[in-house]
Specification:
By secondary structure, the chain is an alpha+beta fold. It has 3 domains: 2-53, Molybdopterin biosynthesis moea protein, domain 2 (Alpha-Beta Complex), CATH 3.90.105; 67-306, Hypothetical protein af1432, CATH 1.10.3210; 317-369. It has 12 helices and 10 strands. The chain has helices at 36-44, 67-85, 99-128, 146-164, 169-180, 191-194, 202-209, 211-219, 227-235, 256-270, 282-291, 299-306; strands spanning 2-5, 14-15, 19-20, 26-28, 49-53, 317-320, 325-330, 340-345, 355-357, 366-369. The chain has a 5-stranded antiparallel beta sheet with strand order 9-8-7-6-10, with no helix packed on it. A 3-stranded antiparallel beta sheet has the order 1-5-2, with no helix packed on it. The protein has a two-stranded antiparallel sheet with strand order 3-4. A hairpin with a 5-residue loop joins β3 (19-20) and β4. α2 packs antiparallel against α3. The longest helix has 30 residues, at 99-128. The radius of gyration is 22 Å and the shape is globular. The chain starts with a strand and ends in a 5-residue tail after the last strand.
Length: 374
């Protein structure tokens, strides 16, 4: 299967991964044959890319966690955030005033923490059960559920990176919880700014940046949330060279867990379709992360992260420097940029359906992703 922008999906392709609505219900089940009407309906609900099976790609790609686990975590996180949001003073609701409201807030606060721990435990249990922790897939996000899907993905990516950096289970638990609620301060951000589909003005961006401090201050009201988790919330936009926010910390001044979440946060954001820009491919996003080593990110962590991301997953349609087109057949885990590619279009007919191992053919490189071949 392969990921294709919705405008490039051809009639007759088969949906390879189930699509869910904003409440976690099945919208369109995998295996459905895509007609023009169905493709248009998918586009109308602002889902910009889908996984398909067509004549080029028939292999199934395994996600690092089961889709049902991911979807359950997203639904639970959304329910949890929405339940606590009504008790938080913002431009959209009044401050807590009565004693009854205060008692309800305390109960909701405890429920909030318990729910987050439940989600973290389910993600950790699932990831610990896997032998292969390479990230092959980009998650499909809906616009309305983006924040919750993003937070779950950041938690998954952070856990995988944390495991490969040698963190123990107690550390991984704090890391996962911090990643899940790293953007909790956005509950306190005006919706007009948070959901704006065009570029933010300087003043709006200044308000948006306050979500780190507001999230940190909110987390201080929940005694069960550890100091490390609060630090992740505060620091996940700090940059290794000191040009981040809110405090301009740099290098080792930034907590190790915050540096992990920062990489996961940016990678998932880059590979997500947004109303104001289309997603980058995994290889493009990985290039961005690698280019930011020692400036935006911890370089040693970037090197580890680069070995965990598959930039050209099996089933990816690619253009080669030879002018030929091929489909990625097999990924070499030690050399993810040099997969085996099956030639499907060439000026030399005898090369059609032959396989090139790019590790052995160092003079050939992948030039670009391709979605259709005429």
């Amino acid at each position: 299967m392969r990921l294709v922008p919705i405008e490039c999906v051809r009639e007759g392709s088969i949906l390879a991964r189930t699509l869910f609505d904003d409440d976690g219900r099945i919208l369109l089940k995998e295996g459905v044959k895509l007609t023009r009407n169905i493709i248009n309906r998918i586009a109308s609900i602002k889902i910009y890319s889908v996984y398909i099976i067509d004549e080029y790609s028939t292999k199934e790609i395994e996600d690092v966690i089961k889709p049902e686990i991911r979807q359950k975590a997203v639904s639970k996180l959304k329910e949890t955030f929405l339940s606590i949001e009504k008790f938080i003073p913002s431009e959209d609701n009044d401050a807590i005033q009565s004693k009854t409201q205060l008692n309800n807030f305390i109960k909701e606060r405890q429920a909030f923490f318990d729910n987050i721990v439940e989600i973290a435990n389910s993600l950790m249990e699932e990831i610990f059960s896997k032998k292969n922790l390479l990230v092959n897939l980009v998650d499909i996000k809906s616009m309305d559920n983006y924040t919750y899907q993003h937070c779950v993905n950041v938690a998954v990516l952070s856990l995988i990176l944390g495991i490969n950096l040698g963190l123990n289970k107690i550390e991984l638990r704090d890391l996962c919880i911090g990643a899940l609620i790293h953007d909790i301060g956005k509950i306190l951000t005006p919706k007009s700014i948070l959901l704006k589909e065009s570029d933010l003005t300087d003043s709006e961006f200044a308000i948006m940046k306050e979500h780190t401090i507001k999230g940190f201050e909110y987390a201080k009201n929940i005694p069960e949330i550890s100091a490390i988790v609060r630090t992740i919330i505060l620091e996940h936009h700090e940059r290794y060279d000191g040009t981040g926010y809110p405090n301009g910390k740099k290098a080792e001044e930034i907590h190790k867990f915050s540096r992990i979440v920062s990489i996961a946060d940016v990678y998932d954001a880059l590979t997500s379709d947004r109303p104001y820009r289309r997603a980058l491919s995994p290889s493009e996003a990985l290039e961005y992360i690698m280019a930011g080593g020692d400036s935006q990110f911890d370089f040693d962590m970037v090197k580890t992260f680069a070995h965990l991301i598959v930039p050209y997953p099996e089933g990816t349609l690619v253009a080669l420097s030879t002018g030929e087109y091929g489909i990625v057949e097999e990924v070499c885990h030690n050399y993810p940029l040099r997969p085996k590619v099956k030639i499907i279009k060439s000026k030399a007919p005898e090369k059609i359906n032959t396989t090139i191992n790019l590790i052995e053919c160092m003079d050939i490189v992948i030039k670009d992703y391709v979605y259709n071949i005429e």
